[in-house]
From TrEMBL:
<feature type="domain" description="SAM-dependent methyltransferase TRM5/TYW2-type">
    <location>
        <begin position="40"/>
        <end position="286"/>
    </location>
</feature>
<feature type="coiled-coil region">
    <location>
        <begin position="670"/>
        <end position="701"/>
    </location>
</feature>
<dbReference type="InterPro" id="IPR056744">
    <property type="entry name" value="TRM5/TYW2-like_N"/>
</dbReference>
<keyword id="KW-0819">tRNA processing</keyword>
<keyword id="KW-0949">S-adenosyl-L-methionine</keyword>
<dbReference type="GO" id="GO:0031591">
    <property type="term" value="P:wybutosine biosynthetic process"/>
</dbReference>
<keyword id="KW-0808">Transferase</keyword>
<comment type="pathway">
    <text>tRNA modification; wybutosine-tRNA(Phe) biosynthesis.</text>
</comment>
<dbReference type="GO" id="GO:0008175">
    <property type="term" value="F:tRNA methyltransferase activity"/>
</dbReference>
<dbReference type="GO" id="GO:0102522">
    <property type="term" value="F:tRNA 4-demethylwyosine alpha-amino-alpha-carboxypropyltransferase activity"/>
</dbReference>
<dbReference type="GO" id="GO:0030488">
    <property type="term" value="P:tRNA methylation"/>
</dbReference>
<dbReference type="Pfam" id="PF03999">
    <property type="entry name" value="MAP65_ASE1"/>
</dbReference>
<dbReference type="InterPro" id="IPR030382">
    <property type="entry name" value="MeTrfase_TRM5/TYW2"/>
</dbReference>
<dbReference type="Pfam" id="PF02475">
    <property type="entry name" value="TRM5-TYW2_MTfase"/>
</dbReference>
<dbReference type="InterPro" id="IPR056743">
    <property type="entry name" value="TRM5-TYW2-like_MTfase"/>
</dbReference>
<protein>
    <recommendedName>
        <fullName>tRNA(Phe) (4-demethylwyosine(37)-C(7)) aminocarboxypropyltransferase</fullName>
        <ecNumber>2.5.1.114</ecNumber>
    </recommendedName>
</protein>
<dbReference type="Pfam" id="PF25133">
    <property type="entry name" value="TYW2_N_2"/>
</dbReference>
Amino acid sequence: LNKAMSNPTPHELLQETVIKFCNEKGIWHPDLLNEIPKHWEKRDDMVLFPANAFKAEAFDLLEKEFWIAIAKCLNANRVARIGRIHSNDFRSPRVTLILGEHSRVLEIENQIKLYGYDVRKCMFSKGNVSERMRMASLSCAGEIVADLFAGIGYFTLPLLVHAKAAFVHACEWNPNALDDLNENLKINSVSDRCKIYFGDCREKCPNLLANRVILGILPSSMNYWYTACKALKPCGGILHIHGNVTRCANRLERKCPCQSAGRDLNELKWYGPRIAHLVVDLQCKPKMDSTTERRLSAEQNLLEILDSNLQTLQNIWNEMGLPEYECKERLQNTVKQINNLLSDMIAEEEGFMDLATRKIEYYKTEVNALEKELNLQEENEGDFLGLVVEEHYYRQRLKQLREEEKRRKILYSDLIENLQILYTRLGEDFSSISSNFDLSTEHLDALSAQLKRKRELCKSRSAMLKVNMAEIKSMVEEMHYTTKSSFKNSLIMAEDITQNCSLQFLKSVQSFHDELKHEYAKFIEERKLICEEKIAQLNQMWNCCKIASEQRQLFMTSIKDKYSAKALVQYNNEINNLEKFYESRKPVLQLYEEWENLWQMKINFEKRGLDAVRFFNRGGALLQEEKERKLIEHKLPKIKSKLEQAICLWNDQHPGESLPYDGICFQTKINNIEIEYAQQKEKEKVEKKKARNRCLEEEAKCVSKIVRTSSLRQKSPNCRPPIPKMCASLTKSKTTVMQITKQSPNISNNNQRKTSTSLLDVPLLRKDEEKKQHNSVYIN
């Protein structure tokens, strides 16, 4: 009792440390005792408390010193809190690091040097220690083991280190555990006897090679049973199946019927309330076929028949009263005959066995040759249940390999044929490809990739050739191109040139395309000049034929490209139509053109008449102009009359057809011109009258101003202005201005402004002149 009191338990030490620290901080309360855990886990120098430990708010206020004291009292350096395991495929732990810089720990168990792992990323169950010990105690010398859920090496390391397994195929899909597994194998010096497969074991685990398969996953490994059975050798093996079982007290008491028929049941731990973690060791053997069943049944029947017949013979001999020695002699003869018969049968069966052995050797040789040719690995190397099974396996294997060889030869032939076609199209050497006969998957994949690349190259070059040839044929057709080159002619005439995709041919086509494109540019420029000439000629014909502007605009907008070949044809057609149109209406058009020229000359004469300078010209120019003007005035009515007669004649000769000018008839056009002319003249007359009135008003203002000035001077005794003379001079100036105005009745706006300005200046000039006269009179 004294010894127990002197050595307190870890829980008591923890409780004492917590109470002491809380008293020092002044936060202790008896309710905090419920927060102190009674159980925890220790990994290396880390203490893992349960999730409900130290969850009160009082502990959240404590600083790092509290956790250091906790770790020190439990002989640890780091502290963490562990929760429930995640329900994902990796069964990742929920660990929160409270004290410490990292969460990696090292475990030593059952003389396994080290289990290294990160407690926040990988799970390590202490409760599975009994199963790890059992795995280590198995005799697996020379055996191959497949661990479908290796983790950090829970069962892989015991099997390699203690059970002396020849080789372990370890599958793992958690990348965090994968690094730890690699490291643990190296630390325990067994990495050379283990191969790791990263990913889903249903896809990565090899087949037909394992003597044992470990299915260490919870809550059930049912989804992986088929994968485990495929991993076993053809002769069978053992499956170590983990799983959780509910409400199975009878199973825990070894009363479960699954213990029979080659099954062993092992209890590991309680996973939860009424949920037990169990492991079943299931011995698996290949299913017996109907032939074997019939053979065993025949043997049983034979023994029964022999026993019955020997008993019958013994009864007959007894009834015959044969002596015992004769009965023994006859029995010996019977046994001898049966023995001879069995010997013959054995010899026959040995012959069959020898035949099976030779077949197996033949099949093995063929299989090895095909595997070498196809670059495949031997799927099965191990024990068989007998020669029949072995012979059947190798026969099926040979059949599969021959089918695979046939498939690959067909694939190889297709690849080579297609590659040869593509190489020929591309103009490349194919001898290096065809000389290398190899049916390996790598070579076939390389040929497939090469075929894909060549097809893409052919496709791109064919597209380039199609584009170039389309442009070439379009330009040749438009230019009516001809050449003496046989190569160029063959290109022009060919319908499909994409069968030849060589680089040299592509360059030749591109060169011809560039040359033709240069000539096509010259052709386009020449056609553009021709089209411009045709457009100018077309405008001239339109003017001659007096075509309406709307009709001209409609024709031009109907042409999308005014320099195209189609537009040139339309220009020529329109010009031809206009020439025919002009010829059919030539008398009328010529008369109208003559009238229009005379009318324009009349307008020009009137414009020249507005210039007053022309009156100072000498040499009879005015007289000549007047004669020409009168001649024009005389001709215009006559030409108009002739035009009207020609129009009436044309209408009589072409009933139902119109003779328009700019959309209206010629008579209406002429009348409109004359009416517009008359309106313009009337407008000019009104403007002229307004200008004359403005001049008179300005002169009146000037005269009144002069009169006022003169009256002022009269009041001066020393000044006597000559009023009569000034008035006479002003009257003379006014008369001169009126004469000039009468001589130039048609005055433009500019001339009116100039005349108005000069008239406004006249009073000022007269004022200066009168001042000079006044001064001279005063001096006299």
